[in-house]
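@channel sequence for tomorrow's demo:
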Amino acid sequence: MTKNKSKRIIRILLFLGTIISLYFVPWSIVTAWIKPLPNNIQEQVDKASDYGFDGIVVCVNKTGNQSEFYTSGYKNKENKIPADPNALFKIASVSKLYNAVAVAKLVRDGKLSLDKTLSHYLPELKDRIEYADKITLRMLVKHRSGIPNFTDTYMYWAAPKETEDEQLALVLGKPANFKPDEDYEYSNTNYLLLGRIMNRVLGYNKFEYIQKEILNPLNLKHTFGSIKDVNIDDVMSGYYVGYDTDLKTDNIGSIIATAEDLSKFIRALNDGSVFRDKKEQDIYSSIYKYEHTGLIPGYQTIAKYHKDIDAVVIQFTNTVNFDGYNWNMSEIMYNRIVKILRKKN
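structure tokens (generated this afternoon):
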């Protein structure tokens, strides 16, 4: 075979490879990403159905703690109830921010130590969680424990456990994913255990502490510890792609909040007003972050403070799948909203 013929064959193969790869490009994601920005946030939010969301609530908390709201789609699609800016929403893993603040406060008061071990606080787990005598509280908060994530167990979300005992049972006796503090891996089990430790040290439910020490001082009256503590009609419905049932009654251990309450908490976290003093804030800064996202069946949350425009942007979307498509679309929606804000600034 001549050199020129070989080159032609290689070019043809590269061309065919390019054509085949284009077939697998998620064009709806690419299109949503490259489209020109609309003139305002509401126009962007009105595209929620094009992005595959049944409903969306966006709260922009600006300088002075003033909130603006943008909604589109449905709070409940079966009954055609429009998206409500005051609806309660399951914020999923964003709940970890409240728990990490509670840990910092308890450490500041000497009721917890970041350097004491899991087996010190929960001795009954010494032989049931590998390295329990070496995993410190600090490692739990920072997701550096190596304890397996109970929500990663096989088909977990097909039938989520409703009690912490059932959740914890899924990982007891399992080998660690890595030795303590040798790696990072996000694990919901870490925060389940932190909750147990706080309950034991306090002698009452940790959410009562969160309410007393975090929510009440910030006047956040629309944040709750469980779906059991609210009027279910106030909760935004949640949907999973291809599954018709409304998921809002599922009790999966998430904090429930309005977009405005969450925005005020995120601002207080970032401006330091959630902390009593610098020492408490320094403790928090050493163990956790200042923004978060959340994803559970039916509910996606993005909660961030943008220092350059002094704005907190909260986005709730109530249609989910776990193959990554919906999450990518929610991030594109969110990033475009922030870009519009920056342009206006």
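heads up for whoever presents: The CA atoms of residues 107 and 207 lie 16 Å apart.
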